[in-house]
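Fold it.
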Amino acid sequence: MLLVAALFFAVFLYFFLKKNRTKNDKSFPQPPGNILLGHILYITSTTHILDVAKKNFSYGNTVTLRFGPDICPIRKGLVTQDYNLIQFILNSRKLIKKSENYIFLKKWLGNGLLISDGDYWKRHRKILTPAFHFEILKNFVEVFEAAGDVLMEKLQKYDEVATVDLDILITLYTLDVICETAMGTKINAQSGQNIAYVESVRNMCKTVIERAFSPIKVFDQLYWLTGDYYKQQKALKILHDDVLSISELREEVDTFMFEGHDTTASGICFALYCLADHPEVQEKVFQEQKEIFEDWKNPETTYSDLQKMKYLECVLKETLRLYPSVPVIGRYTTEEMNFDGYVIPKNTNIVIFIYGLHRNPDYFPEPEKFKPERFENFNNSLPFSYIPFSAGPRNCIGQKFAMLEMKSVISKIVRQFEIKPTVPRHEVQLSPETVLKSGNGVKVTLKKRD
């Protein structure tokens, strides 16, 4: 009897969903999915996300995905790597609300700049923007360099060791930098203090993404029954401990602490990984350093010196093309939108697949190849084809800060070490855990330069 009832309910739900599909479902292709759970079961690990996304895009550059029935907190929406739709979304001053999947970050980041919207977001964005003026950024170079010197000391012991995993070393460096620059506080993460913070960030990022793809964890009513809930609570206690109690300020501090170190660490790690794989590129970076600095090993680096590193900047841009620190971003429609003959209903989640956009051969010939030279004369006639820091009103407030920090530490490492691939070569397992990571670390070999 129970089986009959279950089958009846399944059939009823299928036809109910089919009947109530919006015009949008008919307009944009929908890959085959489970009748009840849609596409939510197709991703069993964060390392599967990119491969599943590529398969879905075989149906079109914009597809409709469904994550469970309509009672699911994150129901259905569009996933796109279509240039015109991305331009339409990111240029819009109406489409500034983040998609519903960001809700899982709310207990951590509250109503900080990453998640907030409307007048609240506009007010905070206006208040915080002057903090990234280039005159202020100049003063941060000393912090980049001092933290980088500590990192160099740490890396000395890995000279000609078969493998060094850059992930944790670089993350601790960027954590030291963001705390001293944004908060004026030295936390000495590279000296072994506050490592629990880094691990908590990592756990939060992973559990947040895994929760979005779980038919059980996606519901608050069921989430507390899982082990991830208690792992999250433990991480939140560490992340919120000893932070300023004024709620709005704490939320922005939490946001800056997360976005200001984890995204930058990702970019640095993947850049060094690419340099290890491409010795001819690394040699050009090294020669540029020697041209800029007379004492090329241990110079006193200034803001002006970092601005001269044009080829290294191309390397970083190409790295962020192949390995964007934030590979997907999301928006949410608060009203019905019309785009190129399509109707996008109100309350639609739209996911922008930056990772796929950046590997489109229409915009980047030989897209899988690492070719920094493509940015030496980059044609910006299609500005939304390359958006590692997003674009439009909600672009990344700290992108200039991030580029300066990455230049500072990579130039220092290249001057001190030759970076080589491991033997056998380490293959990264890309895992979008809010920030793009490698599920098996980012491993290279270092050889001290004479």
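The chain has one domain: 42-448.
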